[in-house]
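Design job #97: recover the sequence.
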């Protein structure tokens, strides 16, 4: 690809980012009555991983599973929360809908480019949940400002990758699919072993989660593995 083509692509992405930013900014100032609650709705089967729920003003980092990111967002979205996903080109409307996310309250900004700090800041101002992709052009100072703004505005930041200082970090250590028979059937669920780390310095816990193929998480069993609790939500 020659330099002219690259520049044209970058310009097109920039225009899309600006258009998405304008759409999000139009959302700012809309009814935010549901912001009165200190936490956003979270599927009960995910409370083993996040016992305090999706707390406003906090950062949750998820490593190793886009499906888990979507599952964390789904219940709040169904209950009326607005969600923005920035720098997540692998997530489209089909994937979001299959996970139970309400498309009417979803903003997808896959390629914000150099506008990432401005786009993310505007989304934090106007959205309940802001999901940030792992390759966004965010400096450490940008991240600090976003955390401060999320705390002020009552938004939840979910990072689809490492985030220094995250209040909670969920790291998928292993996973397996189920649902296929002997040459027939379809993939129906995925079982994940997730290490849960808290910024408070508590002992690492390991949680067993089962994500339905289309709609998020479902309940399951509890067990003990060594010194760490392997809490089932299968």
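Job complete. Output follows.
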């Amino acid at each position: 690809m020659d330099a002219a083509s690259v520049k044209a692509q970058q310009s097109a992405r920039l225009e899309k980012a600006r258009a998405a930013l304008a759409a999000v900014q139009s959302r700012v100032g809309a009814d935010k009555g549901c912001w009165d609650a200190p936490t956003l709705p979270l599927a009960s089967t995910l409370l083993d991983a996040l016992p305090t729920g999706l707390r406003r003003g906090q950062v949750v980092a998820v490593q190793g599973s886009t499906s888990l990111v979507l599952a964390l967002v789904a219940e709040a979205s169904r209950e009326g929360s607005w969600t923005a996903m920035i720098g997540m080109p692998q997530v489209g409307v089909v994937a979001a809908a299959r996970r139970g996310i309400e498309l009417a309250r979803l903003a997808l900004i896959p390629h914000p480019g150099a506008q990432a700090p401005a786009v993310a800041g505007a989304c934090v101002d106007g959205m309940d949940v802001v999901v940030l992709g792992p390759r966004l052009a965010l400096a450490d100072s940008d991240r600090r400002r976003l955390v401060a703004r999320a705390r002020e505005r009552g938004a939840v930041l979910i990072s689809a990758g490492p985030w220094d200082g995250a209040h909670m970090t969920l790291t998928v250590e292993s996973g397996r699919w189920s649902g296929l028979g002997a040459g027939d059937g379809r993939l129906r669920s995925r079982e994940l072993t997730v290490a849960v780390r808290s910024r408070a310095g508590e002992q690492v816990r390991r949680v067993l989660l089962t994500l339905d193929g289309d709609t998020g998480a479902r309940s399951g069993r509890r067990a003990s593995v060594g010194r760490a609790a392997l809490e089932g939500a299968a």
